[in-house]
Amino acid sequence: MIKTAIAGASGYTGLELVKLISNHPKTSLEAVTSNSYQGKSFTDIFPSMRGFKSLICTPFDANELADKVDVVFLALPHKVSMAFAPKLVDRNIKVVDLSADFRFDDAKAYEAVYQPHTASNLLKESVYGLCELNRDRIKGARIIGNPGCYPTSILLPLVPLLKEKLISPQGLISDSKSGVSGAGRSLSLTTHYCEANEAFGPYKVGNHRHTPEINEVLTKAAGERVSLTFVPHLVPVTRGMVSTIYARTRKGAAEKQIRATLNRWYENEPFVRILPPDKFPNMSHVKGTNCCDIGFHLEPESGRLIIVSAIDNLLKGAAGQAVQNMNIMFEIDEKAGLDWVQTPL
Ligand SMILES: NC(=O)C1=CN([C@@H]2O[C@H](COP(=O)(O)OP(=O)(O)OC[C@H]3O[C@@H](n4cnc5c(N)ncnc54)[C@H](OP(=O)(O)O)[C@@H]3O)[C@@H](O)[C@H]2O)C=CC1
Ligand SMILES: CC(=O)N[C@@H](CCC(=O)OP(=O)(O)O)C(=O)O
Hints:
Layout: E1 2-7, H1 12-22, E2 27-33, H2 42-45, E3 57-58, H3 62-68, E4 71-74, H4 80-90, E5 94-97, H5 107-113, E6 127-128, H6 131-139, E7 143-145, H7 149-163, E8 172-178, H8 193-198, E9 201-202, H9 210-222, E10 228-234, E11 241-248, H10 255-266, E12 272-274, H11 283-286, E13 292-299, E14 304-311, H12 315-329
Parallel strand pairs: 1-2, 1-4, 2-3, 4-5, 5-7, 6-7, 8-10, 12-13
Antiparallel strand pairs: 8-11, 9-10, 11-14, 13-14
Helix pairs in contact: 1-12, 3-4, 6-12, 7-9
The site of NADPH dihydro-nicotinamide-adenine-dinucleotide phosphate has 29 residues, from helix 1 and helix 12.
Subcellular location: Cytoplasm
Enzyme class: oxidoreductase
InterPro entries: AGPR, AGPR_AS, AGPR_dimerisation_dom, AGPR_type-1, NAD(P)-bd_dom_sf, Semialdehyde_DH_NAD-bd
């Protein structure tokens, strides 16, 4: 059994991790951390987990965790993770970090968007955990920067098409929609019921912190500078994410080639499903699953490619991908604990 701990278990992605680990055939849950709920039983915070092993929440203590577990999931805010991760890595404990702290290769790129990095020495060895595209490097990694939810939904369809030069790296647009759980469990003005339920619209237009994360990966894939216009929207649903992406095909690229390429990259991938012609995903198709569903349409006259990609922000966009990363790191079946649907419609 792989012994696990979840730091930040009282948050939304923390809860998803507890559910996944509790149903995983090869893992045991040894500790859950929370500051605000320390001393409380996990099932008192989340009554839906009654009947599962209930642990008492403790504050984060790296040495205590390192004595007990093989891997720690950090479901913590940015900045907090970078303070905790080095202590675990020093004790040879594997880390899957759900925050943005270990997603960038370069501290300067991180610092331009977030804040000064206090563990930048780990950026060289941390691996961007986009499972389908970085599997070989994830295998040997001690620390994973689990991708953001918007980047996951945008990168999975675009990376193969850019690598194979089927679309132009210029003028890419992603119009993306997220459920409110994407903002975490803490209350804020934009996410309380009255606001989120009525005020559908874009936010952080032109300055969302995921744009540089996405561009870094796309630029590497294309081998040249990529420009993406990314506009996120908050929609009044609890969970789910859809990105509608517009790209220009490169001269001569036909629908057949696009389809053949995506099929070739993903036909053996259990969690990426390329939909048949004229089929497009919506949030309900992927809710409760670790899947990214991708449909597309090519306007033959304009050469404009319209791609629709859907994920569950809390699963493939966070906790599901984190468990998939752990499965790869420990070289067990990549689907373990993930090949079921949590909340079917
Ligand atoms: N929600 C989503 O869809 C996605 C989230 N992410 C990322 O995953 C991480 C977790 O997100 P999410 O679960 O939504 O966030 P939540 O706000 O729901 O939960 C955050 C957790 O972190 C703990 N925490 C907050 N501040 C501190 C601190 N200073 N020290 C120790 N623990 C702290 C909180 O616990 P307590 O207050 O009890 O200590 C809580 O358990 C974030 O980095 C987020 O950006 C990534 C992809 C998608
Ligand atoms: C709806 C909402 O607020 N979403 C979050 C993204 C959540 C996520 O994927 O990512 P991180 O791990 O990078 O925080 C946002 O726009 O900041």
